[in-house]
């Protein structure tokens, strides 16, 4: 496949005007100016003329629940929170994601080619997130990274869910205490396992604790649901105590402590700012948060938190952040390369570079502007959406 013309925003350097991308075996084989790359249309199945369009890496949603909290399905389609036990780190999102959820098609139509999907925030430890491509029927074939993060939640949500059941946690102290207790048990388990294996001894694995090993070894981060300033700092405190990687998800009051967060070095996934202030801890959320954090030096990505805000509004949320002070080029990065880095998949997606997956979105203009159309969406080098035909390519 060749993509010819248009402006290529690589997210890995300068834009390329009147560009050319050659795709081979699902990956980017060549990228450059159109007059610098020899084009052999007879040797490929498809040639896409981008004309005056903008060619970008496929957009990335860094935090959502599509397929695990399905639209229009009620309880039957809601597998987001196991609200009978506040500590469920062993749950895996891949076991509950329904790729037939309409949100996947909406994502593809919006040029979104990758998404971080996982459990909600009702539990202190909710389970494992996975990073998936957005087109396909079998979830196993969509996985880019699983597990990709461990969901933990601070503040209002676990308090509300369990105080009503007459058990812990009913305070923020209990949320933090229960997480520390679980991490301490997991750390001891990791030490015992290593000692046994080093000595050539048998070791009985504990399914409920094995899931913590990639977190403790810093292979994947804690994915911390935090809105308020105090919850953000509690999450930082615990991550530092156990020497863990972490992302600050939602981070609604991050703009109030931007300089402090920049010193700590944890990235933020901000949103859903296109939703109502439906609970106490989000009273200070605003589209300016992304820009304030970004200017302070915090790596930031934008999220819809679908279905809290609809997945297809992702580029518009970035646009509203730009309107509120985020630099334009940083707006592009906040829905491409930054979420790829934050989610630990930047070796494959998030920028247009030779050797990376050919996950590409072509737009009629800036996707952060409301009237911009998605012209084409390409995943793994396959054309999966043709906006000119207003239908999907391949089997429906």
Features:
9-stranded mixed sheet; disordered C terminus; 396 residues
Could you characterize what this model shows?
The chain has 396 residues and is α/β, with parallel strands linked by helices. The model is unreliable at 391-396 (pLDDT under 50). It is built from 12 helices and 17 strands. The protein has helices at residues 102-109, 139-142, 156-163, 172-198, 207-210, 213-216, 229-241, 258-264, 288-296, 314-323, 328-333, 337-342; strands at 2-8, 16-17, 19-24, 27-33, 47-57, 59-64, 112-117, 125-133, 143-153, 222-226, 246-250, 268-270, 300-302, 360-363, 374-379, 382-386, 391-392. Strands 1, 2, 3, 4, 5, 14, 15, 16 and 17 form a 9-stranded mixed beta sheet that branches.
Helix vs. strand class: alpha/beta
What is the distance, rounded to the nearest whole angstrom, between the alpha carbons of the first and last residues?
22 Å
Mean pLDDT comes to 95
Instruction: Describe the main β-sheet briefly.
Output: 9 strands, mixed
**Overall 3D shape:** globular
- Percent strand equals 15-25%
Question: What order do the SSEs take from the amino end to the carboxyl end, as H and E?
Answer: EEEEEEHEEHEHHHHEHEHEHEHHHEEEE
Helix content: 25-40%
Compute the number of strand runs: 17
Residue ranges: pLDDT <50 for 5 or more in a row?
A: 391-396
Please tell me how large the radius of gyration is.
21 Å
Number of helices: 12
